Amino acid sequence: MRSLFVCALVVLTAVTTARASFFQKTTQDKVYTKAQAARGEKQYTTVCATCHDPAKVTAGKKPAPELVGDKFLSTWDGRTLGELQDQILTTMPNDGSVVLTEDQTADLVAYILQANKQPEGMAELKYGASSKDVVIKK
Q1: What's this model's pTM, rounded to 2 decimal places?
Q2: Which CATH number applies to 25-132?
Q3: Residue 95's closest CA among 126, 58, 55, 132?
Q4: For the chain, what is the radius of gyration of the CA atoms?
Q5: What is the DSSP letter of 135?
Q6: What is the C-alpha separation between 24 and 94, in angstroms, rounded?
Q7: Is the separation of the CB atoms in 122 and 30 below 8 Å?
Q8: What are the CB-based long-range contacts (under 8 Å, 24+) for 94-99?
Q9: Most buried among 8, 29, 48, 95, by the most CB within 10 A?
Q10: b/e 51-83 (16+ beta carbons within 10 angstroms → b)
């Protein structure tokens, strides 16, 4: 009887986990708009590129991690947009020259998604609770 209970518990846990991952929203689910990514690109160009784009980093200065490409996607794969937004909002730019708003941060993340070939949709990405559970996928 006890082994039957344990077996049922294991099956229930497996089904619950599978169901949660089946319904997990990801960056493949069109979570930003083209217009939003365009605003984010302006932010990236004026605030981020001088550190994060190796072609624009000042000679002799160590470049910051790239925000586009396989290395970025591998680093962030499986993590959430909420984590990425929080990191950008609270630590970037690291010289304190600009303070981004939550809306600017969401726009910037939309551009990063677009630059990493994630599909665009009809609704804008918002900073906060709605993006906390959206998982970044390669």
Answers
A1: 0.82
A2: 1.10.760.10
A3: 58
A4: 19
A5: B
A6: 32
A7: yes
A8: 94/51, 94/64, 98/47
A9: 48
A10: bbbeeeeeeeeeebeebbeeebbeebeeebbbe
Tokens 């493949």 — which residue? 28
| Burial (Cβ within 10 Å: 0-12, 13-18, ≥19) of residue 120 | middle
81's tokens: 């947009």
DSSP 31-91: -S-HHHHHHHHHHIIIIIHHHH-GGGSPTTSPPPPPSSSHHHHHHHTTSBHHHHHHHHHHH
Tens digit of each residue's pLDDT (9 = 90 or more) over 59-116? 888 889 999 999 999 999 999 999 999 999 999 998 888 999 999 999 999 999 999 9
Place of tokens 């302006």: 42
